[in-house]
Every structure is written in structure tokens, then in C-alpha cells.
Predict the structure.
Amino acid sequence: MVSDPMATIAARLTPLAPGAIAVVAMTGPDAQSILRRILRHPRRDEPISFETNRPRLCRIFDVDRLLDDAVVTLIPGARGNVVELSTHGGVRIVQRLLMLLQSEGATIVDAWEFIRQSAADESDPAGIAARLTVECEIDQALLACQSRRLARWLLRQRALLPPFLEAIHTLDTSARDEFVARSRVAIRLLQGVTIALVGPPNAGKSTLANRLIGRDRVLTSDIPGTTRDWVSETAFIDGWPVTLTDTAGIRETTCSIESEAIRRATAALHHTDLAVVVLDGTLSPERRLIACEEVFHALPANLPRIVVANKADVASFQGSSDDHAEIVLSARTGDGISVLEQHIVRHFDWHLLDDTTATAIFARQLATIEGVDALLST
Ligand SMILES: Nc1nc2c(ncn2[C@@H]2O[C@H](COP(=O)(O)OP(=O)(O)OP(=O)(O)O)[C@@H](O)[C@H]2O)c(=O)[nH]1
Ligand SMILES: [Mg+2]
């Protein structure tokens, strides 16, 4: 990356996708002279005078070819003024503008690098850059964010985390340990959590998958062995996004297609963080226990699991007994689903993530804390 203070840098600050407006920024010693060469007054053939923080409507020319109209604003920054060119949001326009700036002598960098460099304040080079880096990291997480709850929480972290990190060395050990503990929870959530629904055929795994996903995503039927290849989809557990995998029912079978489906289901479990074992609550407790043991046998030994007894809505439901089932629910009616969600929340410690407590979302943000590597690897 360019860190030369004499370099003039430019970057696209908005995604390269069709939109109403795209923003390209430029800063550095040659920024003003580049502007003079490429901008013209929208109506008259006269130079444009700029004042900082006063937007101006201009025309961008590539030699004599009109490229686009743009609103241009000069904003004071650490390396001189930052020029923001807001053009129409066509992908091609933005690409041509960046090529033009490059041909005029600017070095094109990515948005993150641009913000980092344009904020590098001589009086506090570490401070402002560190704060902006954290904000950029949170913005990146927001771009990929899949749920409203997570987005709201990330937006709160944008305000809470930078000042908290600046003051981290003033905290006592227990406050730091708590910060590291909840940050580990957040980092894992942001990396992506996978939950698999496993169990014998016909237990209601796919019905439960559809309920957690919130729509009819997978086929269900009373024919045992309906689900063949496993299916993954984003689901929201108490608002937090997870990848939910519905798998083929596990049983002894002579059907070669079904046994391949079961083999794939169990292979997928090696990349899973939690198994929800779904049992058919209408079976007798004895049969359920046998089915449960059979499923446990197929799971990787160290895979955490939550066992549920499904179909609690039907008269023939056999109640919970000694078959490991912790939760009784009905995937069909939704009864007991929130209990399952709370179990999952507690399993991953997501209750530690609230909107008032600063929490790191990337391991890098913990790097300033002594001994944190050891904590993270446990
Ligand atoms: N009464 C009742 N029936 C349910 C419930 N959940 C699922 N079922 C029914 O049980 C049958 C099997 O449901 P699925 O969701 O296809 O079961 P599965 O575990 O995915 O089955 P396989 O894909 O064959 O392994 C269907 O007829 C569902 O309508 C429930 O909570 N209550
Ligand atoms: Mg199924």
C-alpha cells in the first residue's frame, strides 16, 4: 500500500454496483491541480472556485469528452483537502473516472486504505487511524450483515468500541477478561455459526428447518427418507443469523442413494458448531431412546448437541422421559420454538452481546490486550 505523503491517492468509497450516486474521493498534493484539469463549470467556460464544505455542481471532462455531471465538495483532511466527487452511480462511469484520475497522476487505493491515510493526523497518528480502522472494520461487517438485530448491534458497536479500545489500559483485569470473553462470542458469531438438524427419518427435521428459516424452504412429507442431500439456508435464532443445515434422516438402509445421503449428512457435521437432534415425540420413550442413541453414534464425538422431542401438538405425543430430550416442541404449531432458540442463545453465549457494552468483532481489535492470544486459542 502507498503511504507516501507526497502521493495523491483516490478511491471509490461506494460499492461498484448500479445506484443513484457513487462517491469517489481524492486527496494529496496534486488533488487541486487534477481538479482544475478535469472539471468545468456546468454552464460557462470559466474556472470553478471552491470553498471547503461547499458542494459545487461541476462537469467532469476526459480531455474534451464529457464524462458525467458531479457534485464536488472539498473537505479539510490531514493530508490537505479531501475532494469528494459524487457522480451518477453507473459502474462504467465510476470506472472511467478512476481511470481518468489515474491517468492524471493519482494512485488508486481501496476505500479502507484511503480513509486510513487521509485521517493520518500528524499530531496523533496512531489515535485517529486506529479509531477509523475499527470503524471501517465494523462497516465491513455491516456490509455482510444478514440480520436486523446484528446490524443494530454493530451500529451500536461503531459508537461504543473505538473509545473503549482507547481506554482499555485503564480497565482492571476482571473488566478486561469480561471484554475478551464477550468479544470471543461476537468474533465467532461474525465468522459464521452453523447448526445442523439431525435425527431419524420422519422426526420433523425439515418442518423444524422451515419454521426456523421462516418460509417453506425444504420439502417435508410423511414418507421417511424425504430429505436426501443436505440443504443449508440462513436462519435467525432470536434474531442472530446462523447457517442452518437440514440433513437426511439417519437409519440403517439398503437403498444406495439414501445411504449416500446419510454419509453426506454425517460428513457435513464435521463443519458444524452445534447439532439439534430432532426426535419424533409420538414414538414410545423406549423407541425414541434407541433412535437417539443411533443418531448420537453417527455424530462426531465432540460435537455439542441439543435434543428435542417434536410433534408435541398431537394426542399420541409420548411426553419426555429418559431419552436425553431437553426440549419439547411442535415444529408444526411453533410451540416451544422460542425455548429452543433460548437454549441455542445460551449455548453460544449470545446473551452477552447487548447494545450497551463495547465488544470487539475481530480478533485484531483485541491485539493490544496482553495475553489475549492465549485466551483466544482456548
Ligand atoms: N403433528 C405434527 N406433525 C409434524 C410435526 N413436525 C413434522 N410433522 C410431520 O411429520 C412428517 C415428517 O416431517 P419432515 O419434516 O418431513 O420430517 P424429516 O425429519 O425431515 O424426515 P426425513 O427427511 O424423511 O428424514 C410430516 O408429515 C410432517 O408434517 C409436528 O410438530 N407435529
Ligand atoms: Mg427431511
In short: The two ends are 34 Å apart (CA to CA). Residues 199, 201-207, 220-222, 224-227, 248-249, 310-311, 313-314, 330-332 surround guanosine-5'-triphosphate (ligand 1) (CB under 6 Å).
